[in-house]
Amino acid sequence: MPLLVDAEQTWVQPAIDYFTYSAAIMHNKGDNPIVFGTIQTYLKDAKERLLLVTKAADKMGVPMGFKLVRGAYMSSESKLAESLGYASPIHKTIKDAHNCFNGCSSFLLEKIANGPGSVVLATHNIESGKLAAAKAYELGIGKVNHKMEFAQLYGMSDALSFGLSSAGFQVSKYMPFGPVEMVMPYLLRRAEENRGILAASGFDRQLIRKELGRRLKAAVF
Ligand SMILES: Cc1cc2nc3c(=O)[nH]c(=O)nc-3n(C[C@H](O)[C@H](O)[C@H](O)COP(=O)(O)OP(=O)(O)OC[C@H]3O[C@@H](n4cnc5c(N)ncnc54)[C@H](O)[C@@H]3O)c2cc1C
């Protein structure tokens, strides 16, 4: 069972990366990594950092695991950058963040198709899901194996999760748990930061309504 270490705001991330990559050097052996780092592709330097880590890991012969996300701390990153007067580390437009996610995803899939390593694509974005699934297919990466999986938050983008799972891909649903006073602020932060997710859950509701209608019709006629 792999251990995926989350990514947080840029001012604490160097320390998290230090501990994660040290643990990866100690524990990742053979083909299947146990300790995974997280790359946030809303950051302008995401691709550059991903290249640096993979290059260093290759040199040391350490198989790496990465969880790829867009990133959940847009407002706090922008607020701090503005208050201290430095340029925001976040891409200028959402299109750049999408391109960065899809570019990093493609890079990682090519990497694991030709060598050791694993990737978890943690996204609710249907376009990114489709692109990655097509790329995995093209590269011949086995669907149900330990090299690649998709992940969504529990209760979010179920249509994407079910679609990928029906196509044979491994899919996880992340379920936060813990004391209410810790879980509620976590969920509120996600709701506030990820308006895209809320739009996607609207799409899910639309699909559920359509399915309910279909079943009602089937039961009546
Ligand atoms: C399994 C799982 C694990 C996760 N773990 C982490 C984690 O460790 N660390 C973490 O930070 N987040 C984590 N997340 C949250 C993740 O970052 C959010 O789900 C993500 O931000 C929502 O993006 P999306 O890929 O679902 O796509 P979309 O909903 O298509 O994209 C929305 C995202 O795009 C980015 N964005 C929006 N507007 C702009 C803009 N103007 N400029 C640049 N970028 C923009 C933001 O990141 C925003 O959240 C995790 C999510 C999942 C599903």
Automatic annotation (TrEMBL):
One of its GO terms (biological process) is L-proline catabolic process to L-glutamate. Transmembrane segments: none annotated. The keyword Flavoprotein applies. Pfam families: Pro_dh (PF01619). Its cofactor is FAD. Keywords: FAD, Flavoprotein, Oxidoreductase, Proline metabolism. InterPro entries: FAD-linked_oxidoreductase-like, Proline_DH_dom, Proline_oxidase. It comes from the Eukaryota. GO terms for cellular component: mitochondrion. Residues 2-196 form the Proline dehydrogenase domain. SUPFAM superfamilies: FAD-linked oxidoreductase. GO terms for molecular function: FAD binding; proline dehydrogenase activity. Its EC number is 1.5.5.2. It catalyses: L-proline + a quinone = (S)-1-pyrroline-5-carboxylate + a quinol + H(+). Belongs to the proline oxidase family. Converts proline to delta-1-pyrroline-5-carboxylate. This is Proline dehydrogenase.
